[in-house]
Amino acid sequence: DYRITFTIPGASVSEHPAYQVFVKAAEILNSLGWKIEIKADSSALTKLATGSLAVWAGDWDSTIDPDMYEKYHKNSGSASVYAWGYKEIFADHSKYAEEISIINRLSEKIEAGREITDRASRITIYKNAMIDVLNLAVEMPIYQGMNLYPYNSEVIKESSLKYSTTEDGNVNPYSSPLERIWEIELLK
Fold this sequence. Notes:
Number of strands: 3
Oligomer: single chain
Strand content: 5-15%
Distance between the termini: 68 Å
Mean pLDDT: 83
Number of helices: 7
Structural class: mainly alpha
Low-confidence stretches: none
């Protein structure tokens, strides 16, 4: 008998970006005999800090720096590490030896990423660190919020927006031109 509640913080389930993902997952699992309930919970963030939610949707805020310390480092004091079960994992070394190994390796990668400023090197480190996060099965990224920043290409030199472009040179929707406004060049 598999009963699990998929929890969305707040008062309304359908407004969260993960809602449709939860609905589809519930349909699939329920067709296999599970009993999945999707519900909103205004106390979810409090429950998250105690690690008492089985499956939940969140939306982490972050800066443009992809530092993972607060969310995943073994020494973080953030509520997220309690939600991931770090407290229980480190309390039982014999039962959770594999998880402890992954968390220690992840923490080393996070520390390495904090020590360098070379963007390409940091990208490699953080990609490898995300593999460890996925191996812990504590989080599965399912959506990315996007912001829209229109600009006039007859006024702004597009190549001066390089900090917010993808490797193929296209402007990306995840960075604000205001983050490095001093680097923007005007054409007129």
